[in-house]
Amino acid sequence: METILVVDNDPRMVSSVRDLLDSYGYECITASGGAMALELLTQQSIDLILLDLNMPDVSGYHVLKEVAANHPNTDTIIISGYSCAESASQLLRSGANDFLRKPYAPDELIQAIENTANRRRAKRKLNRVQERLETSEQRHRFIVNNSPDVVYMLDDKGVFNFINERVESLLGYQRDELIGLHYSNLVHDDDLEKIKYAFSERRTGTRASHNLEFRMIGKLTSNKNGYFEHQTIPAELSAMGVYSGDQQQSDKVFIGTYGVVRDISERKRAEELVNFQLYHDLLTKLPNRALFRDRLTLAIAQAKRNENQLAVMYLDMDRFKIINDSLGHLIGDQLLQSVAIKLRSCLRDSDTLARVGGDEFNLLLPNINSKQDAATIASKILVELEKPMELEGVEVFISFSIGIAIFPQDGDTIDSLIKHADTAMYHVKEHGKKNFEFYDAEMRTKHGRHLSLESGLRSALELNQFRIFYQPQIDVISGNVVGVEALLRWDHPKEGLIMPNDFISLSEEIGMINQMGRWVLNNACKTVKEWSTQGLPAVKLAINVSARELMQPDFPDYVVDILKTHRLSSHLLEIEVTENVLMRDMDQTVTKLRRLADFGVQIAVDDFGTGYSSLSYLQTLPLNTLKIDRSFVSEIRNSKDSNTIIYAIASMAKGLGLNLVAEGVETKAQLGFLKRVDCPVIQGYLTGPPRPADELWENFSKAMV
Q1: What's the helix, strand, coil split of the chain in %, to 5?
Q2: How many angstroms separate the CA atoms of 166 and 329, rounded?
Q3: Confidence class of residue 557 from pLDDT cuts 50, 70 and 90?
Q4: Nearest one of 453, 451, 455, 509 to 320, comparing CA atoms
Q5: pLDDT, tens digit, for every residue of 459-512?
Q6: Dihedral Cα 351, 357, 358, 361, nearest 10 deg
Q7: What is the pLDDT of residues 36-55, one digit of tens each?
């Protein structure tokens, strides 16, 4: 209920009015004059003043003026004896809310108070609505101006009459520059036709335009080179028509288009990245297999149409796995990146180079005139990649084996061209690597055998198809067997006995060499131990170890474990390694071989004199034996030859206190020469070929020394 202040200098009037208001439940306070009324106004909130005009101290006019100026939330009803309509009108213009002439009936007063209160409540409600509207408008304006999207309003002719602040940071325009400008000034010319209907959208709701892509044009600016250009920004537009009046009325009037434009640059970049990753190798940034096949499809179609030739190359890096395993995967990745750059530098812009495997690349040469064009590119690649590369302070040398297939003579489909190039590449691998060859039909049979051997080799261990043959090592003075070398053979179910040269390198390619090496070591040690239990002479067992086996961290441990398992004396085992294997990683090699030597295992250098040129390692490694390579022995024609190399090796072994064994001894003349240079032990077909364990000793009695 309202608080009412009654202001009158007549005490009887004040008292009667107070009683009347109390009876109606109003809270009533009184003032006997204008001064007191003004004081009460400063002390408490007054909703309504019943104000007499004629008072001796401060007149009602003065009070009315003060209320109008400083108390806008207080209403005033003038109660006066004046009956002049002009005076009443003047009072109402001065801020009075109503005028009541004395004398008045009580009902008139109450009605006037209720009318004023109703108007007051309505005004307050309206004020609250307006405040909410203003707050909502401020909030909306804040949201619009701080939106990450461009929000705009076009009139019915496509001219901007509103645009938010986002356009300034996105396109470089000030808002005022665009007001009154047609929307086409911000749209790329190539997109105007497809987007014009959205900018002129008349539909609303679900039928309106949503998420239409186009390109926006930014303000003309100078680039870093001093040239002026427009920035192009990919965007997405949603728009709807705006109408005057009730949207449900049939006579509504179209007044323009409201729209939102979103910058989708980040999304486009993400899409481009995903698309790039789908069709490119992430390490080298080269096309991947999928993109290569797609481009090869197009190139074949074009070559058929124009009756041209094209070439497909299959490139495989030689010895990459050894480099990767010895220097680490980080160096390996850097090597692949450097190789990709070098390969690209050898090519034309129209050529496609793709990485299709760990160290494998495919190359498409479209529109060539002859095979010679492909040969020129292949030669250029081989020459470029012969140059050493320095990676993390390490100088790395690499080479490639390259197979080439020509369209249409070597194939007219994607798969046949790639397959035949792959076949030619394997032919290069089998004939010394570091070269290129063109495919021919004869390679298919050889490659088919290669694939067949690879397939069979994967199950040969499980099917127990490997056999160990033993070739004796003979003391040239006594003629006694002092050792045997374990040599692996593959008893193939269709091809019969296959020699190591035909499958050892293949086992390294497919990662089986370590399993095979452990199998040989275990079974050979077991056999030699069985010989001793049968009363046969205790002979030394020589086993050749590959680089991959030696690089295994646990190599010394499993050698020792096998010796312990079979209770074979460690001095009866001799590990043979070639010079090239020794030099792969000298630090690791020395550490592992010393651990074996400390356990009593003998260490021999196989094929001595054919590999690494530096002989300083002879004093670094814990060596026991040098084996003269068969290539030197084969040069001996009679016992009186003067083979300088063999003399040098024999003298070196003697000077270093090392045992000496000659391999590949096949004639008595060779034997006589070796005796003359004091080579104590020989091995070769003169004293017996490699044989299975159960045939070795029964056949040795027939050997002649």
Answers
A1: 45, 25, 30
A2: 48
A3: very high
A4: 509
A5: 898 899 999 999 999 999 988 999 999 999 999 998 899 999 888 888 888 888
A6: -20
A7: 989 998 898 898 999 888 88
DSSP state of 56: S
Q: What's the CA gap between 82 and 373, in Å, rounded?
A: 120
Residue whose entry in the numeric block shows the structure tokens 């390996």: 332
Residue with tokens 């302070």: 393
703: pLDDT strictly greater than 60: no
What secondary structure letter does DSSP report for 536?
A: -
The helix/strand count (H/E) of the chain reads as 26, 29
Q: Rounded distance, CA 257 to CA 157, Å? A: 9
Per-residue b/e over 274-301, b at no fewer than 16 CB within 10 Å?
Answer: eeeeeebbeebebbbbebbbebbeebbe
Give the distance from CA 273 to its chain's centroid: 9
Pick from 604, 680, 610: which is nearest to 645 by CA?
Answer: 610
SS3 assignment, position 433? coil
At 256, which helix (H) or strand (E)? strand 253-263
DSSP of 335-390, one letter per residue? HHHHHHHHHHHTS-TT-EEEE-SSSEEEEEEEEESSHHHHHHHHHHHHHHHHS-EE
Please answer whether residues 102 and 83 qualify as being in contact, where contact means their C-beta atoms are separated by less than 8 angstroms. Answer: no
Helices 513-533 and 555-566 pack at an angle, to 10 degrees, of 30
Contacts of 201 (CB under 8 A, 6+ apart): 208, 209, 239, 240, 241, 257, 259
Q: Which range, 73-82, 163-172, 316-325, 440-449, is most confident? A: 163-172
In 3D, which of 9, 45, 55, 47 has the Cα closest to residue 30? Answer: 9
Hey, what domains does the chain have and what are their CATH numbers?
Answer: 3-125 (3.40.50.2300), 147-221+231-245+252-270 (3.30.450.20), 280-439 (3.30.70.270), 461-700 (3.20.20.450)
Strand partners, 467: 489
What tokens were used for 89? 């009108």
**Strands (DSSP E) along 74-186, which ranges?**
75-80, 98-101, 150-155, 160-163
Q: Tokens at residue 411, please?
A: 């194939």
**Secondary structure class of 42 (helix, strand, coil):** helix
Angle, to 10 degrees, between the axis of helix 555-566 and the axis of helix 586-599?
A: 20
- Residue 33 CA to residue 465 CA, distance in Å, equals 128
Q: What SS3 state is found at 201?
A: coil
Tokens of 24: 């109606």
**How are beta strands 228-229 and 221-222 bridged, if at all?**
antiparallel
CA–CA separation, 676 vs 534, rounded Å?
Answer: 36
Q: Taking residues 231-247, what's their average pLDDT?
A: 87
pLDDT at 642 over 70: no
Q: Residue 349 region, left (φ>0) first, then alpha (ψ -120 to 50), else beta?
A: alpha
Contacts within 8 Å (CB) and 24+ apart, 263-271: 263/148, 263/149, 263/150, 263/170, 263/233, 263/234, 263/235, 264/213, 264/234, 264/235, 264/236, 265/233, 265/234, 268/234
Residue 318 tokens read as: 């030689």
